[in-house]
């Protein structure tokens, strides 16, 4: 059901997922033939205009394309001005040594929204494109899911646990996805897993759990492409409306931007 058809009740929570902003160290520089700073701000502006009741924003990684302190400081300054709680987990392009973690690097962290919990996992591995969730985090996840057995849970990480049928990006998926799925399968309170990395919208369902990827706020990857290829789809974000009884609705919203047409012929990024 589209979110536009829903009326928010007092016990509902609205969470927005953004991902793969790929910000540069200067706001006028291009990434993959477009300005990621401008597209990011266009997405946030659209979000503010159309989703006025946001309870939190979760960024699922690749915040920076140029992962230096200036990039992260500029992002935080912009986000803090929104006066909306915001949380971010790193992607493979981020530098975890200076990334603005919610708390510590190699820990699972839980956010609370009424009857809902969102657990943030770090799947970024220094020096690697593909992902891995550490054993310590998996153990914490298992413990949290046990402790929160009566609550409804969403898990968020950067890397995709399911193949996208794009050979070039699937070689860089979450390498120990079976371990993550094994933990989830032990519990009945996980409703969804959110992730980025793939720069496109997708959904997989497994044992009642929705696995959802979200478009980038910058360039998009062409679905089901054997080799690297960009897509002409607009940037976007995901909105989740969480209901007290454990039901939720989710919708990806695309944002028409005014930048020049991207160069889909580039060979990488």
Structure description:
- With 269 residues, this protein is α/β, with parallel strands linked by helices.
- It is 20% helix and 23% strand.
- A hairpin with a 5-residue loop joins β12 (236-242) and β13 (248-254).
Looking across the biggest beta sheet, what order are the strands in?
Answer: 4-5-6-7-9-8
Low-confidence segments, ≥5 residues, pLDDT <50? 1-7
Relative strand content: 15-25%
> How far is the N terminus from the C terminus?
36 Å
Number of helices: 5
Radius of gyration: 17 Å
Mean pLDDT: 92
Helix/strand-derived class?
alpha/beta
Q: What best-fitting shape do the alpha-carbon axes yield?
A: globular
Largest sheet: 6 strands, mixed
Core attributes:
six-stranded mixed beta sheet, 269 residues, five-stranded mixed beta sheet, disordered N terminus, 23% strand, alpha/beta
Nutshell version of this structure?
With 269 residues, this protein is α/β, with parallel strands linked by helices. It contains five helices and 13 strands. A hairpin with a 2-residue loop joins strand 8 and strand 9.
